[in-house]
Amino acid sequence: MPTDVVMPQMGESIFEGTLTKWLKKPGEKVQRDEPLFEISTDKVDAEIPAPASGTLGEIKVKEGTTVQVNTVVATIVAEGEAAGAGAASKTPPAAKAPAPPPPTQAAEAAAPRKVESVPPPPQQAVAQHKESVIEFPHGEGEEGRVRSSPLVRRIAKEQGVDLAQVQGSGLGGRITKDDIQSFIAQHGGGAAAPSRAAPAPRPAEVTQRAAAPAPAIPERGPIAVPGELVPMSQMRKVIAQRMVESKHTSAHVHSVFEVDVTRIVRLREREKAKFEQVNGIRLTMMPFFARAVVNAIRQHPIVNSSVEGEAIRYHQNINLGIAVALDWGLIVPVVRNAEDLSFVGLQRAISDVAERARAKKLRPDDVQGGTFTITNPGVFGPLFGMPIINQPQVAILGMGGIFKTPVVRTDEDGSDAIVIRHIIHLSLGYDHRIVDGADADRFLATLKKILEGWNESIY
Q1: What CATH number should be reported for the domain whose range is 236-452?
Q2: What is the CATH number of domain 121-231?
Q3: Known catalytic residues?
Q4: Distance from first CA to last CA of the chain, Å, rounded?
Q5: Percent residues over pLDDT 70 in the chain
Q6: Contact 421, 262 (CB under 8 A)
Q7: CATH 2.40.50.100 describes domain 3-89
Q8: Which residues contact 35 (CB under 8 A, 6 or more apart)?
Q9: Which pLDDT tens digit goes with each residue over 373-403?
């Protein structure tokens, strides 16, 4: 019997997900645990592995469709039944001969080009053009990427149309064939449309276009057109909703401390080559701050709590959420039981969740159960930020940029001097319903003392 492929439940509070991309086509062989499709939910973007080995049969849910968890999205046929299922779900190329043209194109069957429709060497390629949502980094739509099919991009290239000017009516701003044709009818093409007397593309070239979704539009500068209305992506909608909910839930207050991290900067510069050679991972600044946060939380557990009704839950473990900026949004994977990890263990765990977040390899548990969050906008250059609390937590630490700064230091004799130090501004956003200003400042003062007087071995 075929194995059902279902939309997984990516966390206890998740009841639906959007199938954003199929990584296999009907009739292709898949191995158990091999990535099969990508989904986007309120909590995570992830690649979902195949539940069994065999051949991908019928795809029941198209890309861009949002369905309830446990909905059957496809089937996988076992190895012994793959031949029959593959024949049913995928039309064979028949010695690479093109499929018979529709009756309306019979008179043009001998011509090597098709302007009005996609040449269908396998029928599967035609289905792919009609159903797939292809994203690539230059253009508009979801986080600066055009959402369209290869057919739309081919029409745009032939007609000289900039897809940034076309308003998509499909899901998430996807530009459909009707959208591009309506735009051309109203505004014309940017270049002369190919006439029937124009040289036709070679059959091999047309076939390659139909089979490969590689972007054909040249790179362009701005990713947005002034005055254009661009729909929010699914992830952006969720982020917007969560941020507003957090502001409405927590009484946000922020405190900012200036911290001298010269000792840590010099230690990292001295040890980073050896660290990478010994451990096989890069030494970043994040484990220093994560380690210091863990030690400061032990002294001030109020910032590692959450609100439950009219009670305060003091969490037994310290589960650090590490905010990761993605090209298409923001996600906060969790390093669990950070208090039990060594310095090297923290660096490994932080690097692991960050890499898997960017590769869409996070598991449901990776984004659940955080008790305190660290976000590092400083990598982009700001002095500091005022981060919004990640519910249901009560505090979030924001790391600003590290800058060489002239500061006044007093030596043991009481003499003042201006010296150049590496300075960072740390901001703590906290829920004033639970955390008082004095509690927040004590926590930051402890954190500052740990960082400025760093005397732990990184091994």
Answers
A1: 3.30.559.10
A2: 4.10.320.10
A3: 432, 436
A4: 53
A5: 73
A6: yes
A7: yes
A8: 23, 47, 48, 49, 50
A9: 999 998 888 899 999 999 999 999 999 999 9
